[in-house]
Design a protein that fits this description.
single chain, alpha+beta, Nonspecific Lipid-transfer Protein, Chain A, 5 strands
């Protein structure tokens, strides 16, 4: 699976998410993927709207670092974000409380 496929999968998930779950959240969540399909994208969340942007943000509030294969497994429901975090497969830089809200925004 190419990085562009990973981004497409995330765009689809964000498109299906309930916008009301993003109410009151104004933040940028950056994803930095390593491994076989490295790349960076971020989600801008504001006014109950979530936009996925390819590339890095200048000032993300939260940065999620993980291997592209683990991220793909998480998207496909084979790996939970909690399990990934506990196993050290998902690392978070920045505001941990915002990171916890990401799950409800994206439905993961």
């Amino acid at each position: 699976m190419a990085f562009s496929d990973i981004v497409s999968m995330m765009k689809e998930r964000v498109g299906k998410a309930d916008p009301s779950k993003a109410k009151g959240i104004n933040a940028t969540f950056q994803f930095e993927l390593s491994g076989d399909e490295p790349g960076t994208f971020h989600l801008n969340v504001a006014d109950e709207k979530v936009d996925l942007v390819e590339g890095a943000s200048e000032k993300p509030d939260v940065t999620i670092l993980m291997d592209s294969e683990d991220f793909k497994d998480m998207q496909e429901g084979k790996l939970s974000s909690t399990s990934a975090f506990m196993a050290g497969k998902l690392k978070i830089k920045g505001d941990m409380s915002l990171a916890m809200k990401l799950q409800s925004i994206t439905g993961q």
